[in-house]
From TrEMBL:
One of its GO terms (molecular function) is carbonyl reductase (NADPH) activity. The keyword Magnesium does not apply. Keywords: Oxidoreductase. Transmembrane segments: none annotated. It comes from Exocentrus adspersus. Belongs to the short-chain dehydrogenases/reductases (SDR) family. SUPFAM superfamilies: NAD(P)-binding Rossmann-fold domains (SSF51735). The lineage of its organism: Eukaryota, Metazoa, Ecdysozoa, Arthropoda, Hexapoda. This is Dehydrogenase/reductase SDR family member 4. The keyword Oxidoreductase applies. PROSITE patterns: ADH_SHORT.
Length: 251
């Protein structure tokens, strides 16, 4: 499908895993996509791969906690003609363990990247999104935001915060015709989920929670994001959509 022809998208943390799959899918559907990550070599590798697929992609180094880097992202979008879609995907988890065992430094880093940066990206994107006839703001949360994982205590809480940010921002931006939604992936096969799937016992435990009895694929997530970014998702806003194979997702 080519539902996104003529649209411009920014996807953060998009050189690997879920972010890369989202950028790839949006570009496959016709969007011009700006990808980013913290390391230049990763940006160059991802851009090269997607360009070889004939996709319209540009890349920038961006640490989402850096105001100058965020400004460069939106400047690039402006040069391309504006901004129609922002997918805020960047997240970190520097410490594994229960929530109340988290160190203060790790807590601060998790909330700085996972929550504060998502808020600032959205805030800074609004002027450009208001100029679009189809403004889309999409946060990437996690099933852990609904059902906290013991190994991902502080991370889980940060992802719960995004659910609330989605609801509040959707109400504020609805009069401007901008939809705001959140996608909460389950256990997706990526490097980020290795702690939950690397050992046989951990994988068995993970699968026991998933009614569909399989781990997710990055394309399971990217297809939902593409739907929300397209005209097919034009009447959906303020929603937190779980993509987790049937895992429990009740706050």
């Amino acid at each position: 499908m080519k539902r996104l022809c003529g649209r411009i998208a920014v996807v953060t943390a998009s050189t690997d895993g879920i972010g890369f799959a989202i950028a790839q899918r949006l570009a496959q559907e016709g969007a011009k996509v700006i990808i980013s990550s913290r390391k230049e070599k990763n940006v160059n590798k991802a851009v090269d791969k997607l360009c070889k697929e004939g996709l319209d992609v540009k890349g920038l180094v961006c640490h989402v906690s850096n105001a100058t880097d965020r400004e460069k992202l939106f400047d690039q979008a402006h040069k391309l003609g504006g901004l129609d879609i922002l997918v805020s995907n960047a997240a970190v988890n520097p410490e594994v363990g229960d929530v109340l065992d988290c160190s203060e430094s790790s807590w601060d880093k998790i909330f700085d990247v996972n929550v504060k940066s998502s808020f600032l990206l959205a805030k800074e994107a609004v002027p450009l999104l208001k100029q679009s006839k189809s403004g889309r703001l999409i946060f990437i949360s996690s099933i852990a935001g609904f059902q906290p994982f013991n190994l991902l205590g502080a991370y889980s809480v940060s992802k719960t915060a995004l659910l609330g940010l989605t609801k509040a921002a959707a109400l504020q931006l609805a009069p401007d015709g901008i939809t705001v939604n959140c996608v909460a992936p389950g256990i997706i096969q990526t490097k980020f989920s290795d702690a939950l799937t690397s050992s046989e016992s951990a994988r068995t435990e993970a699968l026991s929670r998933i009614p569909l009895n399989r781990l997710g694929d990055t394309n399971d997530v990217s297809g939902v994001v593409a739907f929300l970014a397209s005209n097919d998702g034009a009447y959906v806003t303020g929603e937190n959509i779980v993509v987790a194979g049937g895992m429990a997702s009740r706050l």
